[in-house]
Amino acid sequence: MTPLPADPTPLMFGDGRLCIEDVVAVARRQRGAALSADPAFRARITRGAEFLDRLLREDGVVYGVTTGYGDSCTVVIPPELLTELPHHLFTYHGCGLGRFLDAGETRAVLVARLASLSVGMSGVSLPLLEGLAALLQHDILPLIPAEGSVGASGDLTPLSYVAAVLCGEREVLHHGVRRPAAEALREAGLTPLRLRPKEGLAIMNGTAVMTALACLAYDRAEYLCRLATRLTAYNVVASAGNAHHFDEVLFAAKPHPGQTRIATRLREDLHSDRPSRNEQRLQDRYSLRCAPHVIGVLEDALPFLRQLIETELNSANDNPLVDPDREQILHGGHFYGGHIAFAMDAMKNAVANLADLLDRQLALLVDTRFNHGLPANLSAASGPRAAINHGLKALQISVSAWTAEALKQTMPASVFSRSTECHNQDKVSMGTIAARDCLRVIELTEQVVAAMLVAARQGVALRQRVAPDTRIEGAPAAMLDDLAARIPLVEEDRALDGELRALLDDVRAQRWSLYER
């Protein structure tokens, strides 16, 4: 099991809004989790559960509590069977397939579900919230299949695995070992829950899986945005490019804020206030000259995407909702994940364009027709042995393959709504599929970036070999020194996969501090 975080301050549920960084910190075990002790918060949760109990005693009709689910809402449940209904819900939804969510993704799902139920409009009890918090505290992670949700009525099938584990059923990952949930709960001193009316629906009928994955995707995409900028700076240097393409006055003429930030970062990395040595080449090719325009699309989209994701994260998104103050049952459709679906479809498009940009930059660097004096394929071999060494030839092919696959994944998932469940769910969001697609595009783009780190180390070193006065200073120089210390110059051909995997781990761990957020 990942060690408990050094930061003793847990993330408190019920004390206010969460942000994407909160979810990421708990997902990485950098923070713990706890339920707020605030009396007003706890009283609100209790009022909702007690109102629901009273309504049932008074023969109120509540969807999913006294009726069946979906198109079975006209089926009246006999009073003596009401307590069995939530358990039947998670049982028959135990049909997920595909890979299991990894440990970080699963923690994020638990955070997102607990955040939503802590809003206090789901009619659940404090023991249920405490049970979810306990899973995080003891790192008892439900094994959640990634596939099987259409994103409305929420993430029913994947979240059924959370409900089942709380009740001591199915399997978990605990201490890095796959084991029965009942066994792990017992070892942690936890008692399986018997779900109250509505609690099965409250856990499952929401957008927690797609929202959790969206938070993790945002964090990774934001880092890729900054890393693609630093790599572009290296590639300008390696190509002996024109740093004045990022002029401040030039970008003031088309002042998209994110695009402008990217140009500013490139100016700072390249010290473009100095006279240019390349005035004979007025314009570089688009993948260098227009890099702020490409990276800037993601940089400008990120604040909007954050707003969509964090609003969903802090929402009550099951159905029906229970208003404990006005004592009303509100039937609606907040389980619909359209905002997350749109955010993920948009994000994967912008991220795939980063991969495409860097792929084009590498294609220029390895080609003697376009790299302005560097050796073919960025090979550092010299003398007679240069004839049998191939530098980064194969790496460029792999980058092209990863980029093509990323671009292929950009078809929006949200337009593929399917009518399901006897046409009760006749318009669905596909938000969870969109989030998984986005993570796959991010994964492929991270692979491109890992390769570009090798190319940056190689390309800048070779430029300095042919132009000794080539200078890189400050933070870019420190990062390049770090790369050079860990990646030997490719003089004799060697397999690069081990180094690429290590770099990929570094990218995902966000090893390098890049610019101010």
TrEMBL record:
Report the transmembrane regions from the record: none
What this protein catalyses is: L-tyrosine = (E)-4-coumarate + NH4(+)
Q: Coiled-coil stretches, from where to where? A: none
| GO MF, one example | tyrosine ammonia-lyase activity
What is this enzyme's EC? 4.3.1.23
Do you know which SUPFAM superfamilies this protein is assigned to? L-aspartase-like
- EC supergroup of this enzyme: lyase
Q: Name one GO biological process term.
A: secondary metabolite biosynthetic process
Which InterPro entries does this one have? Aromatic_Lyase (IPR001106), Fumarase/histidase_N (IPR024083), L-Aspartase-like (IPR008948), Phe/His_NH3-lyase_AS (IPR022313)
Alphabetical list of Gene3D superfamilies matching this protein: Fumarase/aspartase (Central domain) (1.20.200.10), Fumarase/aspartase (N-terminal domain) (1.10.275.10)
Q: Report keywords, A-Z.
A: Lyase
Q: What is this protein called?
A: tyrosine ammonia-lyase
